[in-house]
Every structure is written in C-alpha cells, then in structure tokens.
Design goal:
alpha+beta
C-alpha cells in the first residue's frame, strides 16, 4: 500500500518531447492559469471504462483535440464543472473536439447514482478507480483538465476549477482545436 501511495505522489507530467508547439495562443484572462506547453509530450495509451463497462483508450481520437476533465463525487467544484463540460461538448459536437470526463473515484459503482441524484444521469463519463491516469499526468488535484493533440500527445493543462461557461472560453477552445486537432 505504501508503494502505491509513493508512486501516486511521484506522478508527473511526461518528459518525452514529441515536437515544439510553436508560438503560444494568446489567452483571455479567464484562461490565465491554463498552461500551453512549449513541447508536446508523448504519453502512454492508457484505457478506461465507462459506466457500462465499455473500454475507451486515450489515443483513439485521431484528429481531435481531447479535453480530459478529472473529477470526483467528493469534489464540490467538480459538480459545478459538469454542466459546463456538457455544454462545451454540445456546442462543439460538429468540431474536432472531444470532452472526456474521467472520474477518479475509488468506488466507481457510486458514480452513476451520484450523477443521477444531481440531475446528470445522461452525463457520459469514464471511470478510473485505479488512477491509471497517473501514468499520464498527476491525478492529485480535481478538478483538472488536460489537453491532448490529434495524435494523443499532452499539449496543455489547467489544474483547479475554471468557469468553463465564460464567454471567452469557446473562442479560445476554437483556436486550440485549429492548432492541435490535426497534429
């Protein structure tokens, strides 16, 4: 058990650089804590399960910008982000953007009832009770959102709560899609 805790504490951003990301996109104030990395980082192709037991792999979304939003049932700010993430998913349904909510709850059987109780029964989330995501990025802060280019490389992140419903977020996401979806 101690080894498991130690390895989770040592999780970090991957270091293998794939390409230089070039000039950073100018950020609106709301996105000031978002880190657009100067180099895209290669990550392992980890897989997760959805609430129905179906498997999904992080790198299966070729040609799409992927937003992995870490959340947990015990995280109050995460509950505020859920409808915002769903709104972003709906607004961008015809764009090269994938929203991948990922619950890191250790008792994953409680996730679907929690979502239903809070009026989010149709919210499509994936489960990671073993915190496999720690092989890709640290899962010690929720909410946290990590961005991957069209080849599955890590290109940016934002740890902590953000008002994803702010009017300046969508235009910024569109610039990220244009720059990274087809990398």
């Amino acid at each position: 058990m101690l080894l498991l805790i130690a390895s989770a504490a040592n999780a970090s951003i991957p270091t293998e650089k794939v390409y230089n990301t070039g000039e950073q996109i100018e950020k609106p104030m709301i996105m000031s804590r978002f880190i657009e990395m100067s180099s895209a980082r290669k990550v392992p192709n980890v897989s997760f399960k959805d609430t129905h037991g179906e498997s999904i792999k992080l790198k299966q979304f070729k040609g799409k910008l992927v937003m992995v939003n870490l959340w947990a049932t015990w995280c109050a700010p995460c509950i505020k982000e859920i409808p915002q993430m769903e709104h972003i998913r709906l607004v961008n349904a015809d764009k090269d953007l994938v929203i991948l909510p990922l619950s890191i709850d250790e008792e994953s059987e409680k996730v679907a009832p929690f979502l239903e109780r809070h009026g989010f029964a149709d919210y499509q989330t994936w489960l990671d009770p073993d915190k496999s995501i720690d092989r890709v990025m640290p899962a010690n802060v929720v909410p946290a959102t990590y961005f991957f280019d069209g080849s599955g490389n890590l290109i940016g992140f934002l740890r902590g709560y953000l008002d994803w419903g702010d009017a300046e977020v969508q235009p910024y996401l569109e610039k990220l899609i244009a720059k990274y979806a087809h990398r």
